[in-house]
Design a protein that fits this description.
heterodimer; A: alpha+beta; Glutaredoxin; four-stranded mixed sheet; 3 helices; about 25% strand; B: mainly alpha; 2 domains; 22 helices
Chain lengths: ~80, ~475
């Protein structure tokens, strides 16, 4: 069971990132819990300079861009 | 009922005029440039100058550059602002970044230039840059204790090194060339190199129908819809449909709709750069220097874009499309509403309130800017309306400085990061400086010698920098002593 956090205030890229991550998890057959983090202070606890950020099991794996499904599958499998 | 129809007509007419050639030639390339900046410029190439140990003469210009190059939307502005403040160069550069980002980014500059004139865009850029750095320095001076109390957190966030690749640089420069070729009003861009007449006998009748649908009053500065404009609106609708299919999932790879959408975009730019005139015997198509230059510059974009790796160009197209989705729809709605409202405002009201360049007029403009919140870029057509209605250019600039910088939304956001005291100080400073900027630009428009204004501004920023430098020196000396 993986924990996936989407960091972002709810802009277009955050929604897109969540969709990509969900599809990646489904297609890889990995069970994951999705959490949205919208509070600025909680977001800034991670080292990032631009949203959206993707956090898997409390490790920031990408920020400021939308990764492809293949990338997210790799991170989920790691 | 008649009044209602009149209002809707005003809105539709305004919208149609905005979708005409000159605005498209600026907005379409600007969206692609903004997308390229977001996707192709690595943030670390600028943020490495914003670390805790950066000298202030490096960090303030770097903060302004970050505002200009990296930040077109709040997704980047808020985290970068909080990051610079809490983990990087401190309050002053963070404020400079926050102030400059809404006015200094490519979309705002290109759009202001095409609607209100290049001179106005230039004034907005320069005054925002100088006052952005000035306000940042002032804030750093007022709250110097705060920055001093920053503990020695790790600087890793700003340690990354990165450079912009040659292909990405080529794409960016070629896109800027498209923008310049499309908007500059200079020979040989304005020259005509030949004309052919297409046998379309209905062209003249269609033009008459368009003028009937969207009546306009040239004396009020309104524009009607030309045959060319109607063709462009059709092309835009087609782009909208194909882009939705082709660009929504472009991060995963391109499909046929992607190429259709991009081809249509290129075609739209070329059509917008041609000159179409309906005649009795058909439609005259004049080949302008502008059309040639735009086509050439777009070829250069393609040339460099082919050298980008797949992730880069997919990211670029996605970011460009995201800006279109996020901004264009609101802009279209905003322009329509501005057109409706304009029918209701009497020019005398504006002229009596802000027809001159004095303290009261500038203050009124700033207060209006603070209390009205318009979505990104909609402040520009609003400003255009005020200009047509007789507002002086000085107060107009004051309004354009205050509106995007200060809205209830942005004030709350800033307060969450830096606390209330600092936020209110910032708001106060922005209000004062916006009034000042309006007075200065207004004086220039009214014919005051620009050299004096330039000297005054430079002296102001120089004094602040000197005082800050002296303070920092004393602090360092005190620390060494203790």
């Amino acid at each position: 069971m993986k924990t996936v956090k989407i960091l972002g205030s709810g802009c277009a890229n955050c929604k897109k990132l969540e969709a990509v991550a969900r599809e990646a998890a489904t297609s890889a057959g990995i069970e994951a819990e999705f959490l949205k983090v919208t509070d600025m202070k909680a977001i800034m606890a991670y080292d990032l300079l631009a949203t959206p950020g993707l956090v898997i099991d409390d490790k920031l794996v990408s920020s400021g861009r939308i990764p492809t499904q293949a990338e997210v599958r790799q991170w989920l499998a790691a | 009922m008649d009044t209602f129809l009149h209002l809707v007509n005003g809105g539709a007419g305004n919208l149609a005029a905005y979708l005409a050639a000159h605005v498209l030639l600026c907005l379409l390339p600007a969206f692609f440039i903004a997308g390229a900046m977001a996707a192709l410029i690595p943030k670390a190439s600028i943020t490495r100058w914003l670390g805790r140990n950066a000298a202030y003469r490096v960090s303030y210009p770097a903060a302004a550059a970050a505002g200009s190059l990296l930040a077109v939307c709040s997704c980047t502005i808020v985290p970068l602002f909080a990051g610079i403040y809490k983990k990087g160069a401190g309050l002053g550069p963070a404020i400079t970044f926050l102030f400059f980002a809404p006015a200094g980014n490519i979309l705002a500059l290109a759009y202001t230039g095409s609607i209100l004139g290049a001179e106005f865009a230039f004034a907005r850029f320069v005054l925002c840059l100088l006052f952005g750095i000035g306000i940042g320095l002032l804030m750093a001076l007022l709250f110097w204790r705060d920055d001093a109390s920053h503990d020695a957190q790790t600087d890793t966030l700003f340690a990354g090194q990165a450079n912009i690749g040659p292909a990405a640089t080529g794409v960016l420069l070629a896109l800027v060339a498209v923008l310049i070729a499309g908007t500059l009003k200079l020979w040989p861009l304005t020259a005509t190199f030949g004309a052919i007449t297409l046998p379309l006998p209905w062209a003249e009748a269609w033009q008459a129908t368009l003028f009937q649908w969207v009546p306009f009053d040239a004396a009020k500065g309104e524009e009607g819809v030309s045959v060319q404009g109607s063709l462009l609106i059709l092309l835009l609708l087609l782009i909208g449909v194909t882009a939705w299919k082709g660009l929504e999932n472009v991060v995963e790879g391109a499909n046929r709709s992607t190429w259709v959408a991009l081809g249509l975009t290129a075609a739209t730019l070329v059509v917008a750069a041609l000159r179409l005139t309906p005649r009795a015997d058909g439609l005259e198509v004049a080949l302008t220097g502008r059309a040639l230059a735009v086509a050439l510059a777009m070829w250069a974009v393609l040339h460099y874009a082919r050298r980008l790796d797949a992730d880069a160009w997919r990211g670029w197209l996605w970011e460009a499309w995201r800006f279109v989705k996020q901004i264009f729809v609101l802009l279209v709605a905003g322009v329509f509403v501005v057109g409706v409202v304009r029918q209701l405002i009497q020019p005398e009201w504006i002229q009596s309130l802000a027809g001159r360049n004095d303290l009261l007029a500038n203050a009124v403009a700033v207060v209006f800017g603070v209390f009205m919140y318009f979505p990104t870029l909609v402040e520009v057509p609003v400003a255009h309306m005020f200009l047509d209605l007789g507002m002086h250019r000085g107060p107009l600039l004051a309004y354009l400085m205050a509106d995007p910088e200060l809205s209830l939304q942005s004030i709350l956001m800033v307060a969450a990061v830096i606390g209330r005291t600092k936020t209110f100080t910032y708001v106060g400073l922005v209000a004062v400086f916006s009034v000042l900027a309006g007075l200065i630009y207004g004086a220039w428009v009214d014919g005051v010698n620009p050299v004096w204004l330039a000297v005054g501004l430079a002296a102001f920023v120089g004094t602040l920098a000197a005082v800050l430098s002296w303070m920092l020196g004393r602090r360092a000396a005190a620390a060494a002593h203790a």
